[in-house]
Amino acid sequence: MTSDAVVIGAGIVGAACAAELAAQGMTVQVLDAAGIGGGATAAGMGHLVVMNDSPAELALSRYSRELWLALAPALREEDAFVRCGTLWVAADEEEWDAALALRHAFANAQVRTELLDAAALQECEPALAAPLAGGLLVADDAIVYAPRAAQWLLEHSLGCRNIQVRLGCEVRSVVSGEVRLASGECVKTGLIVIANGLAAQRLVPTLPIRPKKGHLLITDRYSGYIRHQILELGYIKSAHQSEGASVAFNAQPRPTGQILLGSSRQFDTLDRAVEWPVLMRMVERASRYLPSLPSLNAMRTWTGFRAATPDGLPLVGPAGEALAGVWIAAGHEGLGVTTSLATAKLLAAQICGVPAAIDLAPYRVDRFSVEAGREV
Ligand SMILES: Cc1cc2nc3c(=O)[nH]c(=O)nc-3n(C[C@H](O)[C@H](O)[C@H](O)COP(=O)(O)OP(=O)(O)OC[C@H]3O[C@@H](n4cnc5c(N)ncnc54)[C@H](O)[C@@H]3O)c2cc1C
Fold it and tell me: Which ranges carry the FAD dependent oxidoreductase domain (predicted)?
């Protein structure tokens, strides 16, 4: 079996990269050790959100959210795309100032927002605690069921006829022009895309990726309990804490009427077990914002691992001189569903040697090599 390109990983990032390369006319083999949309893609919340931790994060997430909005009409009901918007909640004056700053940054990036005072916030989401200082509504943010969206990209996107998916194919190593499978098979190709999330580091050990564990909880069906994905403004601080365990309020209304509750962040563990003390902290935190939350029935809890880089931005570009023809699309941390489509566009632009829609430099793999042997 030969193809123009081999993509390793059928998570949302690998699927998006394969779909983009296939749409450009390349034949693409996608190899995954397990199934489509497993890994972090199955574990996450699927919130499609513009984030502003850095100008590069804002540029990438905004670009990618626009790509999702453009793709949305083609998606199926089972992909569960809903433009529910994000409601950033300010608990006090300090967070209200953060809402104003976020609004300013978003305005500069042409991201539409609406500032809500305390009364408007209460009207918008009556289940929220009162009084809160106010909120910032980002109406064009959305949610999607990422594992299904990954399957759509591989099996229904424009160039899907050019894509061959091979599941149960664990990749053991990669050299220029060749992918070696655990079965002993060698797949030869001119172009290799490493998009296997956290496990990318096993194939390229120098990649600066650390696991960041997260807990999630889903409730029974409570249709209309909340209507927007609601996050506390303190979430941004918590999301980028680099040590210890942190929790923040993040609640999502699923199209089924269930409430998906996040999120926690812990470094330096690969233990999949649900940790009750962390989960309790998460629920307690959420209950400050949704006081009736403890009366809802929880159906399931689980954990997942984000692939975090030192600066919180993904690695998108050539793997380096020693691995000619090998490309990386990994390290998307807690935003990989959102940024998958833009990642694929940026990767394809570099591969095809055409200009990209946004500056590529902040995401290049070699941005860390300057520090090689020291920081990274
Ligand atoms: C708790 C939590 C909440 C999140 N919430 C959000 C959110 O709301 N919004 C958002 O945008 N992002 C969110 N994320 C982040 C997002 O889920 C990830 O960034 C994204 O799913 C990463 O996709 P991926 O394709 O890079 O990796 P993965 O989904 O991990 O896929 C990697 C694939 O590679 C395969 N693989 C691994 N090793 C090999 C190998 N050696 N050979 C072959 N195949 C291999 C795996 O089987 C897997 O299918 C969240 C993540 C977590 C953990």
Answer: 4-349
